[in-house]
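Posting for a labmate who doesn't have an account.
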Amino acid sequence: MVDLAYENTRNESLAVGTANITVSRSKHTFSNEARRTMIVIRNNSDDPTKIITINFGIGQATAGNGVVLRQYESLTDTTDSGYICYQGEITAICAVAGGSLSIYER
């Protein structure tokens, strides 16, 4: 059972532009960080042209290749019933400058 008083959580917004950014570092067992049990990524950009692409794994995000989030769309991955939430690196890129992601991670 997880002691919620000590559970690490992350709530933040990230600016996303036309250059690749890291949304979340790898949480594999060889890192010093706790394993990821949930991540919610939401495109909260102020303009519908600010389409953000999310990449899971090795390599950089490229616009339109991967999980494409249009304005106000979101992606959730969570550990449940034997499934383990993705633990690798997550990157993002926006089709135009000035995009924004909301991140909730635990």
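Reply:
Got it, the structure tokens are right above this. The first strand starts at residue 10 and ends at 16.
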